[in-house]
Amino acid sequence: MDSNSPFLNLAIPPEVKMIYLDNGATSFPKPPEVYAFMDSFYRSAGVNPGRSGFDLCLEAGSLVDETRRLLTDFFGGTDPNRLVFGYNSTDALNLAIWGTIRPGDHVVTTHLEHNATLRPLWKLEQAGTEVDWVDFDAQGYVDPDMIIAKLKANTKAVVMNHGSNVLGTVQEVASIGKVCRERGILLILDVSQTAGMVPVKMDALGADIICFTGHKSLMGPMGIGGMYVREGVEIAHTRAGGTGVKSAQRAHLEEYPYRMEYGTPNLPGLAGLNAGVKWVNALGIEAIHQHEMALWTKLRNGLASIQGVTMYCAEDTGKGRISVLSFNVDGLEAMDTGTMLDVDYNIACRTGLHCTPMVHEHLGTDVLHGAARFGIGPFNTEAHIETAITGVRDIAEMQRKRR
After folding, report:
1. Residue 69 has pLDDT above 50, yes or no
2. Where among 248, 282, 316 does a domain terminate?
């Protein structure tokens, strides 16, 4: 990277034929190192780890162990056995929520949550769990004091996301975590959007359980994720199955990581996640975030100059933020805007409710079936952003002429 420029100037693989601005959903393209290591490792040692003692099995197991250590360090954990793998953050959040919260407990959450959190909590609410939902302000931030004010004697957990996948706002969770820790209340944190984009450290955030996915800013493939469980925190079993360890035992194992892992792991996914995290570490989270936010600022300023475009919570407040930006063009539903950007400008973006219905209900965009969302990644360039601004400007001008 040029030290005088905020831009990474990464080479875009020639097979990528479109401007990809949907990195909030999944990062694309992946670094070449990810594709290469997934292919080479799966070809050379793509066997079931931990089930036998032959060399390939041991090599597969070594990759799993190394990736545990890599991510434990990445998240500021202390015991790699407390880093457990699953499919994605939705899978991890379900294990964490169903394994710690019961009917009769009280939970505090927010209106910014993804359905990965909303739906398990809604189902628990129907079964008798008390859930308080805290709203966000005009800039897209949740006031920590409002969450703390909701805590009660029977509060079991605060469950919330670290960064909004719609608004890009990063919540100030450390003060919440401090109070939760003092009162013996769990802080379960969804770091799907922030892991790999901003620092996510267990103790700094005061988190007890962090749930992550590999396919976003950790630059891994889809189908791999997991959680880190702080020492002293226990999650009840909601599943059981094979572990390759103590197979004669009828009950599922109590010790970590086997306590929260079930069946054959996603070894190709682990290989890709391993390579992705190493790539992020090599470039540095700060450099990646600087690059993406420089492009975000260019995009925000460009869209702000267009008559008939509404952006949501895109003010520069000086608070934490990640590089997603949601908007609508007056008179158009979000899907129509996205279709025109795809067909006429070869731009991929996300449209709809983004699996966060309460956000759109708050914004009033639910009646438009959501919003269009640009998600900037490390492989995006200034030219991509300029084309996106031009495309939205043309669409808005065309829409004004029709009215």
Report:
1. yes
2. 282
